[in-house]
Design brief:
- The protein is α+β, with helices and mostly antiparallel strands.
- It folds into two domains: 4-145, Fructose-1,6-Bisphosphatase, Chain A, domain 1; 156-265, D-Maltodextrin-Binding Protein, domain 2 (3-Layer(aba) Sandwich).
- The chain has helices at residues 4-25, 43-59, 91-95, 166-170, 188-195, 209-221, 253-265; strands spanning 32-34, 40-42, 64-67, 81-89, 102-109, 112-120, 125-130, 133-139, 142-145, 156-160, 177-181, 199-202, 225-227, 247-250.
- Strands 3-4-5-6-7-8-9 form a seven-stranded mixed sheet.
- The protein starts with a helix and ends in an 8-residue tail after the last helix.
Length: 273
């Protein structure tokens, strides 16, 4: 399946959700509170969540929903199709009136992310992907496809977080790999498609399903692979929504096959919990 209808729907939803997000952003007195885990939630998060959930229930009433700001419905675990929702990814930035926050939506089918749509309203950027079409970045009135760099017999180019620096020390043989230290975040999965790199490795905690699924859908649509540090494919819509086990994101199975032995050789282990 191409999920073209779901992709068009998801794009429309995140773009319409920008209106309440921006309305909240512009408020000087935006209400906020702390959640049980200590993170903050603003009225903007809740307003965006209300719009997205309402549209999902109207457009795909038979699908389950897993939202950062919604109640956790155990019945979603029995559903083949589940939408993950992050109404405002980067709430702390949003609350501090900074620009780098986004609205994220993904469709997971049988545990695999198949549709991803992410918009950054204040940056004017929107990313989207589904099976059968290359991921795209729309900005300044132009849309361009994001494609993976081929291995073509050259060195494997690996980005890694500071905590995974042992990768570079292990090396994998002279000239076999080039390592670049990078910041930590799920956006690195889609940035691989623009940077010309082949893999990204982090031992860190990568949020929850709603943080990783949209970008995993994009990388997978480009032919990529997203696993934990042991090489097990990341699955979504599970009882435990937190992403555990670290991340190896590669632009192709071949790139992943070359990255995994480096991770094993460096004896990287995921940060806990």
């Amino acid at each position: 399946m191409t999920f073209a209808a779901e992709l068009a729907f998801a794009l429309g939803v995140v773009q319409r959700a920008a209106a309440p997000a921006l309305a909240g952003f512009r408020r000087a007195d935006l209400p906020e509170s702390k959640k049980p885990d200590g993170s903050i939630v603003t009225q903007g998060d809740l307003d965006v969540n209300e719009l997205i959930v309402r549209e999902l229930r109207a457009g795909y009433p038979g699908d389950a929903i897993l939202s950062e700001e919604g109640p956790q419905d155990a019945e979603r675990l029995d559903a083949r199709r589940c939408w993950t929702v992050d109404p405002i990814d980067g709430t702390s930035l949003y609350a501090r009136k900074q620009r780098h926050w986004s609205i994220m939506l993904a469709l997971v089918v049988d545990g695999a992310p198949v549709v991803g749509a992410v918009t950054y309203p204040l940056l004017g950027e929107t990313y989207a992907a589904a099976p059968g079409r290359a991921p795209t970045r729309a900005a300044n009135g132009q849309t361009r496809e994001l494609r993976a760099a081929p291995l073509d017999g050259g060195p494997l180019r690996v980005r890694h977080t500071a905590a995974a620096a042992a990768l570079a020390q292990h090396g994998g043989g002279q000239g076999a790999a080039v390592f670049t230290k990078s910041w930590h975040g799920a956006f690195m999965l889609v940035s691989l498609l623009a940077s010309g790199d082949h893999a990204f490795v982090t031992t860190g905690r990568t949020g929850h399903d709603w943080d990783l699924a949209p970008y995993a859908a994009m990388l997978c649509a480009a032919g990529g692979v997203v696993t934990d540090l042991a090489g097990r494919e990341h699955r979504f819509n599970r009882p435990q929504t937190r992403v555990r086990g670290g991340v190896i994101a590669a632009v192709s199975p071949a790139a992943h096959a070359r990255t995994l032995p480096l991770v094993e050789g460096a004896e990287l282990t995921p940060e806990l919990p």
